[in-house]
Design brief:
The protein is an alpha/beta fold. Helix content is about 35%, strand content about 30%.
Length: about 325
């Protein structure tokens, strides 16, 4: 396969590195308007080709697929041009700026029979794959709640607020593990820097059957935290991405509720069993993601993180904007 990569900022070089290492990718063409970035990528990876014009790359008939690793405001135009040029596309998160844009791109991809994949990298981490396995196998039971904290000091973005910058990671993990569309969203946030972009925010998501999810994202934290707590009726999971050894810990803790109808009493018994940390493999997430993109193209199937998955994340993101602008109003999805 021959791959074009548009955008060589923070994340683009990581895509280039994994593309070079993949034996199924025989040609890599990198594109960026910044000549310094092009020079750096050529010095680091001498076998890649470079160009400064995305249209030139997209007009190359030998290129089979394109990775769009640019700010979100450029995703729609580049994705549309790539699909019209007959290319499969891998798009950095968040997929698009609006639900309407995402739906248009998916319709265009279906019309031209092209594969659309979204770079929700965390779905391919050993930790998230293990949590998904635990939930699907019934180890956790029915879920009570999904709680996530993703905070650090910076980096402030110029074009999106803290929710659009950080929350797509956790929204995509939630969507992947739970596998259901939420029914409503509420969000609140504040702009402390005065750029018109929220830098601290909280998002509350509701599902059917009393399942709730809560997200705290923050650019103004003195510490870096990447932590997720998922509680089920049988077991609970703590996922701490900052841990080097025990990233995932499973707790046999919870409650058992018994109701005596005759006495109109509710008895709550607390369960406190053992904790264990499952063994995780050491496969690099981005390597697995890129291989999934290749496999989906070759097998003509939807990838694990499809354009539809990207659309569902954008649907939540868009709802948070509406909620914040309307004093944290509950927005039905």
């Amino acid at each position: 396969m021959k791959l074009g990569i548009i955008g060589l900022g923070y994340w683009g070089p990581n895509i280039v590195r994994n593309a070079i290492m993949n034996p199924e990718i025989t040609r890599v063409v990198c594109c960026d308007r910044d000549p310094e970035r092009l020079g750096n990528i050529q010095r680091t990876f001498s076998t890649v080709e470079t160009c400064a014009d995305a249209d030139v790359l997209l007009q190359d008939s030998e290129i089979d697929a394109v990775a769009i690793i640019t700010p979100v405001f450029a995703h729609y135009d580049l994705a549309k041009k790539a699909l019209l040029a007959g290319k499969h596309i891998l798009v950095e998160k968040p997929f698009m700026s609006t639900v309407q844009q995402a739906e248009e791109i998916l319709e265009l991809a279906e019309k031209h029979q092209r594969i659309v994949m979204v770079d929700h990298t965390f779905i391919f981490t050993p930790a998230v794959r293990k949590i998904k396995e635990l939930y699907q196998s019934g180890v956790l039971g029915d879920l009570y709640y999904f709680d996530s904290v993703r905070v650090n000091l910076g980096l402030f973005q110029r074009d999106v607020n803290v929710i659009w910058d950080l929350a797509p990671h956790d929204f995509s993990i939630m969507h992947h593990i739970i596998g259901k569309r939420p029914v409503s969203v509420r969000a609140m946030g504040s702009d402390h820097v005065g750029k018109g972009m929220e830098d601290v925010a909280y998002v509350h998501v509701e599902f059917e059957n009393n399942l709730i999810a809560h997200f705290h994202v923050n650019w103004l934290s003195p510490v870096k935290v990447r932590r997720m707590l998922i509680a089920g009726t049988k077991k609970m999971v703590l996922y701490d991405d900052m841990e080097n050894v025990e990233k995932v810990r499973v707790f046999d803790k919870g409650i058992d509720v018994n109701t005596r109808e005759a006495e109109y009493q509710m008895l709550v018994n607390y369960r406190s069993g053992e904790m264990y940390s499952p063994v995780l493999d050491n496969t690099e997430a981005l390597k697995a993601l890129l291989q999934e993109f290749i496999d989906a193209i070759q097998e003509n199937r939807q990838p694990l993180t499809s354009g539809q998955d990207g659309l569902e994340v954008v649907r939540i993101l868009e709802a948070t904007q509406v909620s914040i602008k309307n004093d944290s109003k509950k927005i039905n999805l």
